[in-house]
């Protein structure tokens, strides 16, 4: 698992955008799933892409580990990549990336998912109320100013900063600030993707009728539904009364194995998905 909390997504996103901008890489599409990431990049040399991926992943792993006081590897597998030259393959790849959350039953249409960032091509606040500074609370105004300052300096938003910002905001304001952060840092070149379809609207229409495919990178999925990760979060927080859901990562292997069996019985979630959530490797399959 890579993303447990809202801050996880935002830390990874701001790192991605800052690094892409620093390295002058065209980020044509990006989808963040709970346990993996998909990207479409335009680069001239494979070593540039490799450097970009290593920088982003190492930086995120460092921030993630620091946030939950853990050590060790976060990304279990080296990133996979494959060049796309045929138009049909390129379009299929974009559709596959955009529709990953649809396939994993997180939404009905690709544009409904926040973390493939498609909705931000049309609006700066697709998942929240419009942010009007003159009507905003003092903590929200301060947070907005800090985001703008950090972005201008090409600095990321780390966990400490986000926790401090969110602490003084209500639920609606957190959603407003989240949209503002994404819109401010966003470097996704939507035209680079839409150009393969004729327009952004035509691209979305194509996504609605074709889930796409990734011919060259073989993915192995456990289970068929990523909504179960929300089920696991609720069950764990209820059973163990944790301060943060990410505390499960620092449990001992013995405690994780006991939790694995308990959660499998209580939730019916496949062992493989529970193991991913707990950051433990097991060979046992759900009975």
Question: Summed up, what is this model?
Answer:
The protein has 287 residues and is mostly helical. The chain has helices at 6-22, 46-67, 87-103, 138-152, 159-167, 171-185, 190-194, 200-209, 228-240, 253-267, 271-278; strands at residues 26-32, 37-42.
Walk me through what this model shows.
- With 287 residues, the chain is mainly alpha-helical.
- It has helices at residues 6-22, 46-67, 87-103, 138-152, 159-167, 171-185, 190-194, 200-209, 228-240, 253-267, 271-278, and strands spanning 26-32, 37-42.
- Strands 1-2 form a two-stranded antiparallel sheet.
- Strand 1 (26-32) and strand 2 form a beta hairpin.
- The model has no long low-confidence stretch (mean pLDDT 90).
Architecture of the domain at 6-126 and 187-209, CATH level 2? Answer: 2-Layer Sandwich
Query: How are the strands of the largest sheet arranged?
Result: 1-2
Number of strands: 2
CATH domain fold name of the domain at 6-126 and 187-209: Alpha-Beta Plaits
Features:
287 residues, mainly alpha, Alpha-Beta Plaits
Layout of helices and strands:
Elements: H1 6-22, E1 26-32, E2 37-42, H2 46-67, H3 87-103, H4 138-152, H5 159-167, H6 171-185, H7 190-194, H8 200-209, H9 228-240, H10 253-267, H11 271-278
Antiparallel strand pairs: 1-2
Helix pairs in contact: 1-2, 1-6, 3-8, 4-6, 10-11
